[in-house]
Amino acid sequence: MFSLLLGVLYILTPTVWGDISQRASLANNLASNGSGSPYSMNVTDCPGYTLGSLQESDTGLTAHLTLAGPACNAFGLDISDLTIEVTYQSQSTLHVKVYDTANQQFTIPESVIERPAAPTTSYAGNSDLIFNYDTTPFAFWITRRSDPGAMPLFDTRTSSLPPTPIPPFNASDASTAFDGFPLVFEDQYLQVASALPYGTNIYGLGEVVASSGFRRDIGTNGGVGTIQTHWSLGVSDPIDQNLYGSHPIYIEHRYNSTTGKASASGVLLLSSAGSDIFLQTPPNSKVSLIEYRMIGGILDFYFFSGPSDAEVIAQYGSVIGYPMWQPAWGFGFHLCRWGYHNISDDRENVAQMRAAGIPLEVQWNDIDLYHAYRDFTTDPVSFPGDEVREFIQELAANHQHYIPIVDAAIAVTRNSTDVYDPFTRGVEEDVWIKNPDGSLYIAEVWPGYTVFPDWFSENMLSVWTDSLKNWSDMGVEFSGIWLDMNEPSTFCSYSCGTGANFSSVGPLTDVSSVVIGYPECYNETLWGPSGNMTVNGTSTYSCATNSTTMTMIEKRGVGAGSEEGVDLNNPPYAIHNAVGSLNQHSLASNATYSGGYVDLDVHNMFGLMEEKATHLAIQSILPEKRPFLISRSTFPSAGKWTGHWLGDNFSKWQYLYLNIQGVLQFQIYQIPMVGADTCGFNGNTDEELCNRWMQLSAFTPFYRNHNTNGALPQEPYRWDSVANASRIAIAARYAMLPYWYTLFANSSMAGIPPVRALFYEFPDEPELFNVDKQWLVGSDILVTPVLTPGASTVEGILPGRGSVIWRDWYTHAAVNATSGGNTILDAPISHINVHIRDNSALLLHQEPGYTIYETREGAYSLLVSLNAAGTAFGTAYVDDGISFPPGPSRSLTFQAAEGTLKIDSNGEYEIVQILETITVLGVQKPTQVAIQGSPVEGWTYKEATEELVVSNASVGLNGQTILVWR
């Protein structure tokens, strides 16, 4: 299959290898353009552009671009007159925008994504990024002021590219490495490419479940490593294909093997157009490249200089917006499934969780809640409104919360006696997406025939807000909202209900089938149908390492381009949409919105616009409280409005591992509140897989167990070993809540990612660049989960090459780690390896409670892990955990050196809880301990772990505290 894939690409695409003229001839022969077609396929012969009329300013430059020769009309009509604007946005951010001078191409409106204001300070002379250009043919490249001899960070020149490994880069050694990539700017097709260092490290360009892992495959010697399509699609977590969200941003982590140093940079193409992005390496070349192919829009690039990975992510956040403030309760454990058939199921699960001593913060309901699968309703038999209200109020009385689902599709009334206010009100207010002829666009989803919200309609927000408010008033007193099916996803192509008899199609009825088949690797002979995988409390589960086959992208043919006009549903260039034509499982591309917008241009932003509207609606319904949202489809800036779950995954060990790369991806995308369906959604899970997954997810931001209708129940109380693993992991999570909360405050204020790949903190250690089976929570907590069945140990790298002391979270013992390689760690069932980095100081909750409220009401403890020099540092951010916008807060700083720990406190928020216990790791046994100059009698010392414990510190956190040990 792979060789066939490359063979097709060799002929049909303007790749970097092969005989250009021969390939172009073959392509034109295959095009089947038809008589009189204005389009050809010889993209490599497109003339490019010439730059002229340049005007410089204090903040950048503006110039015109004109077509440098006869139009090639490869997949559309060439636009002859373009404008380029270059803005030095800050010392670390450069904005390069190329658009049609007539402004006829779609550009993302400011009402959807607000961009930074024009700078009032000139950065042109001191920005770390420098814009360079050639006039004919026009090309540009971005270099670092701080590293002028290095290969450019982005380079669109089709010649003068280095043929040798990078670094070092010597411009005088440059020669032609590839051609065939002129700038193409057409009404239906845009193309631009940039050289990259051979085999460099690229991360991002999702949403994707990538077979190559978190690090994207860049190809080797003539190989296409990645074809990443951006077209939001509601399918169950396929591998190496387009998925729910679109995030055309990447980080490059560039390593200089000569100096042993690395630096990071980032590139955002802020476009909602459907697109293919290729990462590939020409044969016999020491240069790789990235190529963008878009089916509309403009070229709107932002470049970020880093130089650290976390700084790149933060700089991206400064452009599209920092993440929303999360309520403290959102960090609790959430429980859901499709298949809680009535309110009694909800009550039973809440009771069973408490009986098992497994903390439960939020109970969710899927579409079982609805009457006839209609949004904003409850089923009068299985979920009567009064009983739902009573249940939710019981949760609230116990400091727990409730979240229901909201699907994007709104049911169409079936006849004149059918009463459904959200639809009829929307018709009156003219807020539904239409067909080009002005009729309602009618799709088919769970309720039957449906319409979709037109988020550009001026009345949409009020209709959406009132629908949510009425739902809450009727008894569904939600604490947050779960947005699903918002790619948007449908079950038919085009406007399948237009002209139909609405009364003939009701809600779907075939959704209650039982998921058959044993869980992955299940041994029926050994365990029988009862599924008892333990004997006397000892797990007997084991099976061979999972070997699920990764799926490959199958190449779709490039469109013939025979249309005389613009066919919105079948653009001449066919992106690699996983399900074929653009309208499959989604809206047709010619569906129309207010303002004349069409789905072809705004499709990838549908979920974002729903998230923004829902966030604003919840703000008005729950004033002075932070909204909590989890959504499936996302786009740049979605993190301002929502969190994300990783979609409809599978109950397989492979997806346990893939969980990690998904969480790491969305830190780049500034949507840090993210997690997978714990124990898997599709299929049947088993005891060991659920045991390991409940542990893993406890150390990711969003923590929810959720599975599909008809599958085996997988609530953590179902198995004793899973219950035990859950209690242990959740206790650690809730103890770390002040640390998590501080990381997310830093994310909301400055865009710093809470979860980090290992190389973010250790950028000069190449052995970490492809590590995606471990991660860091902040800079100080290392997580190494078990990802294979039957394991009692796990291998993991403890970064720092021996310069860092890593201590076990549970025992506080220092690990004898292998420098630069894997260390084997004990990992019996129900145990996940968690390690604390030295030079850290972590504010913790001393006694985790059953709920987040109870946990926050208790005393604090402080864990200080000294490095070899005897120093440590940490911070904490504290507020009430619920106010919107964030109200008074307090910032704490912890600093240890030379036998002294200083705690500084600043802010208006009064912390009522005391600091009860202070633990310092890595100290020699002292003879005396004092707080605020007064001797402390009740301290202990553990020789084996060099651990000083002051268990009765009992100090406040609203002023300065000094602890001294001698």
UniProtKB/TrEMBL annotation:
One Pfam family named in its UniProt record: Glyco_hydro_31_2nd
Glycoside hydrolase family 31 TIM barrel domain segment(s): 324-743
Top-level lineage group: Eukaryota
Glycoprotein found in the keyword field: yes
Signal peptide coordinates: 1-18
GO BP terms, alphabetized: carbohydrate metabolic process
UniProt xrefs under InterPro entries: Gal_mutarotase_sf_dom, GH, Glyco_hydro_31_AS, Glyco_hydro_31_C, Glyco_hydro_31_CS, Glyco_hydro_31_TIM, Glyco_hydro_b
GO molecular function terms listed in the Swiss-Prot or TrEMBL record: carbohydrate binding; hydrolase activity, hydrolyzing O-glycosyl compounds
Keywords from the UniProt entry: Glycoprotein, Glycosidase, Hydrolase, Signal
Residue span, Glycosyl hydrolase family 31 C-terminal domain: 751-841
UniProt keyword Hydrolase present: yes
Family to which the UniProt record says this protein belongs: Belongs to the glycosyl hydrolase 31 family.
Name used for this protein in its record: Glycoside hydrolase family 31 protein
